[in-house]
Amino acid sequence: MEEKFEKIVSAPSIALEKSVDLTKKIGTNAVTAAHYKRAKTYWTSLGPGLVTGAADDDPSGIATYSQQGAQTGFQLLWLALFTFPLMSIVQEMCARIGLATGRGLAGNIRINYPRWVMYSCAVLLFIANTFNIGADLGAMAKGVQLFAPHLNFTLLVIFFTLFILLVQIYTPYERYARYLKWLVLVLFSYVAAGLIVGLDPRQLILHTLIPSITFSKEQIILVTAILGTTISPYLFFWQTSHEVEEEILHGKTSLRLRQEAVTKKEIQSMRIDVWSGMFVSNLVMFFIVATCAAVLYTHGITNIATAEDAALALKPLAGNNAFLLFGIGIIGTGLLAVPVLAGSAAYTVSESFLWKQGLYRKLKDARSFYGVIILSMLIGLGLNFIGLNTIKMLIYSAVVNGLVAPVILVPIVQMTSNTKIMKERTSHPAIIAIGWFIVAIMTVSGIVTIFSLFG
Question: Which pLDDT tens digit goes with each residue over 244-270?
Fold first, then answer.
């Protein structure tokens, strides 16, 4: 009888406990679902900015960052933080131009500036991108050979060239854009590599927040190379044209000289996308430099010329996992960056000569546009077989980029402050001021690069 009474008395409390447990579970599931939904919405909102930022970390960029860490240790780690807002502001300006006008950067320069400015930019950009494509194709082939040394270098370079061309030409733009976006995740292999080697948080915080530089010729060249690698002209053109492609994909007119203005929501969405992409780019730069500083520099290994050198040097010191992640990163970033390099050259040349252009078009509808892509890829392929090594290709590319960047940055800053071009969507005066500061930095960087290489 007492047992029955206890069961009756305790039943409400047991039921209450079960109810509380159930409520907790439901609440936890609801929170998890909310987080998942928020993360999915954020991922869906990312696009041109994310791809552009990730494409900046191409194999040649990885080589530069690896050199930085191996040669100077943690000393220049602060550059990852310094270049983040500079990159973001420039790319936001480019994206804003694409949104407000419905034209690529080259098309806007052609309309608002003397033709010689546009033709000079188109020629120099094509040359710089082609050298960069050649270097990246060679680096990708070398990356594969890290895992399979018996595979033929020539066949690998040809394979990557044909594969990228076929995907870029024959894949529908909507699917192609998704492919580029998911490929961005490969970059996090460098973050994983940094976590594996066990970085010292105190060193990271100290050298990130407190700038330090030695005014030697070698270090000045390295700093200018980093600036040229992070704030690259091909990213300007790709960002602007990719924004236009996205407009067309979502059913808007190709020319946004349109009746309705760009909404604040569109600008806000673009800004989140761009700053997220540049954050990923600089985060990867940060971990590459830190990993090479912690492992290579501390062991006296400073002679790093390529991304493959960095991967091979890490293997005996940091283990197979770090080596594997670095090697995978070289191949993955090449697959992302080479199409962006070829595409930006095609956008620039096509808009300069009023050719039909756009990855949303089929080959038969934009033969000249795709012809530029094919030509730049084939020349890049050929550069690997004329005795011109990867390092020289990167040097030549850096020189041309040093010449082109400030020339293109001037009209970018001018256009984003011009109400006739941008209507009510001009950049904020503070952003314009920072834009001119970036122009000054890149001008000095270009001059220093040229004098250091040929002086």
Answer: 887 777 666 555 444 456 778 888 888
